[in-house]
Amino acid sequence: MVASAKRKALITGASGQDGSYLAEKLLSVGYEVHCVLRNHWFETEGLVPPNLSISYDHLHLHAGSLENVLGLSRIVREVMPDECYHLAGYSFVEVPFEEEPTVLASLVSGTHALLAAIREFVPECRFFLAGSSEMIGAAPESPQSETTACRPRSIYGLSKLSGFHIARFYREKYGIYAVTGILYNHESVRRGTQFVTRKITQGAAAIKLGRQKSLSLGNIDAVRDWGYAPDYIDAIYRMVQGDEPKDFVIATGVGRTVRDLLEVAFGTVGINWQDHVVIEPKFYREIEAVPLIGDARAIELELGWNATKPFSEIIEEMVVSDLQLLQKA
């Protein structure tokens, strides 16, 4: 499928790391890009989501939220997109008990609302859902593939798995081109500071500049499969351009510990992390008995995708960026 200037894409979650990179990619290949942003971005004149600063003037913006299903339906009807990328949703694995109903309802109802509107108004539209390795949860094997049994260990994972089944239902029942990317952890300079990768790279930069003395972390032996966000956006785009709708694992296939991350981040600024990192039990999260590491051979074989940026370069790039940001502050 060849993109043209007339093709329209709709992105939810456009102000986040993935959404902003996707918006830039789609603009670069000639798409008319429409983005759904939360209402607060429209309440103050001139307020621009930081991640969209590069592409903001070239985007068509719509106020909306996952909770407002009628609003989502209206946006789909107005835009009539050729492709819809559903990236919005609660970003944290650990969800407070009192917020569980809201998180579950918003992620599930938002996915259903978009697919129902696509079926009704623009059934030829291709739909991508951002899934997560947290869908798999307590994995029976490592690495995990598209056929690995899913046993979510969190409300976040459960909500992502529910969305996956909704997308599959619309694909099989109504013939909608709907696919889910089972995304493993992926990082970049646009990663939020609440995530452990950015917490570490920002902490290393702050300690180097003398603005911080220590960094508090939980279990540094936890294992993750960390990739590069722009690489994963390339995978997402390829999935939507495929000859047939298929779900794929998007991962590097290599597990790294938080300790490995510390070595690279602090090594970038010439500091021994052991002199500054404080282990605090309150930050501990239960470690998976079987590590979440993805097997991406299917997407490599069928769509020719590969992860390109090495782990060390990803982290080094993030540390350098955080040094620059802190020096400007």
What does this 3D model show about the protein?
By secondary structure, the protein is an alpha/beta fold. It is 38% helix and 14% strand. It contains 9 helices and 13 strands. Strands 3-2-1-4-5-6-11 form a 7-stranded parallel beta sheet, with helices on both faces. A two-stranded parallel ribbon has the order 7-10. Strand 5, helix 4 and strand 6 form a beta-alpha-beta unit. Helix 2 runs parallel beside helix 3, helix 3 packs parallel to helix 4 and helix 7 crosses helix 9. The longest helix is centred in the middle third of the chain and has 22 residues. The relative contact order is 0.13.
Question: Could you give the topology of this structure?
Answer:
Layout: E1 8-12, H1 17-28, E2 32-37, E3 60-63, H2 69-79, E4 83-86, H3 100-121, E5 126-130, H4 155-174, E6 178-183, E7 186-187, H5 196-208, E8 215-217, E9 223-224, E10 227-228, H6 229-240, E11 248-250, E12 256-257, H7 258-268, E13 277-279, H8 297-303, H9 311-328
Parallel strand pairs: 1-2, 1-4, 2-3, 4-5, 5-6, 6-11, 7-10, 8-13
Antiparallel strand pairs: 9-12
